[in-house]
Design goal:
This protein is mainly beta. The protein has strands at about 30-35, 35-40, 45-50, 55, 65, 70-75, 80-85, 90-95, 95-100, 115-120, 130-135, 135, 145-150, 150-155, 160-165, 170-175, 175-180, 185-190, 195-200, 205, 210-215, 220-225, 230-235, 235-240, 245-250, 255, 265-270, 270, 280-285, 285-290, 295-305, 305, 315, 325, 335-340, 340, 350-355, 355-360, 365-370. Among the domains are: about 1-105 and about 115-130, no CATH class; about 140-235, no CATH class. The chain contains no helices and 39 strands. The strands form nine sheets. A seven-stranded mixed beta sheet has the order 3-2-1-39-38-37-36, with no helix packed on it. β8 and β9 form a beta hairpin. The chain is flat and about 55 Å long.
Length: about 375
């Protein structure tokens, strides 16, 4: 079954997926010295002295930072652009950043839970969408999923509600469509806010390349944006298309099909992961490796788990339980098995944790922290 996870606003820690900095911005790396964070360049030259409790990478010219218990936004010089007054904050995407606040000062906060609400700020700090939602997801393709009264809907960047908050779940837009759940059934809404595909499916995945996997009467098929069935229901499980291919399960084994439904890689694997940068993870005899789009094994199966390739690197979990390391596309173990958790590489860096402490590394394994 496709794993469904509510895209909730869990943004208080540094352990999360790194998103690319704008290609026109200086690539600065968050640097930890003890418990404080600043910026360095790739040569470890300090650009901003470590002084924040948390500091993320620059995104659209600003970086979210934590001072005390509150979050705000700074530029690459550390100048405060948006005041430190939020209980949580996301990075900027499509010109807006998701923020969350209880409206209570640090000194007034008590042990019990307090109500926190979500909204969006622009790069001047103006709350262009008021903090009135119980939960929200960052903007994708011009729209954001928001929760009000226990139900999910969608707004545009002006805060206009294009889909009323009436769904059990609402997920981000992908390929011009968004998955929604009404009770136990799944359907899709389009960018006009219309429920163009009725909530009748037992499960569903995101649209990609014009098709989405859906489950009905226990079998998976693929439909187009009109709801027309393009690939018949015959699969026990299915995943969204990635780089022209979709992983599907038949008779207990996984393989790949193309958009016409043609079998591309034979059904003989225990599990597979989506294609990324021309390679996909496969599981055989309890171990993971990688093959290309012809099914040729480029990295033979020997790992307990693998991630997806990003920026030419993929995470791999040690066969001896020593932790996580990284390989390149030749299968060379470039970064030794030593980390407890990690993000994908983007713009040459990845966030990792070791001995319960976090920091960044580059593709050579250089560490950007001092304990």
């Amino acid at each position: 079954m496709i794993k469904q996870s509510l895209l909730s606003f869990i943004l208080l820690g540094l352990f999360s997926v790194i998103n690319a900095q704008n290609s026109n911005e200086d690539i600065l790396i968050p640097f930890r010295k003890g418990t404080k964070w600043g910026f360095v360049d790739k040569n470890k030259k300090i650009v901003l002295e470590p002084k924040f409790e948390n500091l993320w990478y620059l995104q659209e010219g600003l970086a979210k930072a934590q001072k005390g218990l509150k979050w705000g936004f700074v530029d690459k010089f550390g100048k405060t652009v948006i005041k430190f007054k939020y209980d949580a904050a996301d990075n900027f995407y499509e010109g807006l950043a998701l923020v969350k606040s209880s409206g209570i000062d640090d000194e007034d906060m008590e042990e019990e839970d307090v109500s926190e609400m979500c909204g969006f700020v622009d790069k001047t700090g103006k709350e262009v969408i008021l903090l009135k939602y119980e939960d929200a997801v960052r903007f994708y393709e011009g729209f954001a999923a928001v929760k009000s009264g226990g139900k999910w809907g969608f707004i545009d960047k002006m805060g206009k509600e294009i889909v009323p908050c009436k769904y059990t779940y609402g997920f981000q837009f992908s390929d011009g469509m968004a998955r929604v759940k009404q009770g136990k059934k799944w359907g899709f809404v389009d960018e006009t806010g219309n429920e163009v595909i009725a909530c009748k499916y037992e499960d569903a995945g995101n649209f990609s390349s014009g098709l989405a996997p859906v489950k009905l009467n226990g079998k998976w098929s693929f439909i187009d944006k009109s709801g027309k069935e393009i690939i018949p229901p015959r699969y026990e499980d299915a995943r969204s298309f990635s780089e022209g291919f979709a992983g599907v399960k038949l008779n207990g084994k996984w393989g790949f099909i193309d958009k016409s439904g043609k079998d591309i890689i034979l059904f003989k694997y225990e599990d597979v992961k989506p294609f990324s940068e021309g390679m996909a993870g496969f599981k055989e005899n309890g171990k993971w490796g990688f093959f290309d789009k012809t099914g040729k094994k480029l990295v033979h199966q020997k790992y307990d788990d693998v991630g997806q390739f990003s920026d030419g690197m993929a995470s791999v979990e040690s066969i001896k339980g020593k932790g996580v390391g990284f390989i390149d596309k030749t299968g060379k173990e470039v970064i030794p098995f030593q980390y407890e958790s990690h993000t994908q590489f983007t713009n040459g860096i990845a966030f990792v944790k070791k001995n319960d402490k976090g920091g960044y590394i580059d593709k050579k394994g250089t560490t950007y922290w001092e304990d």
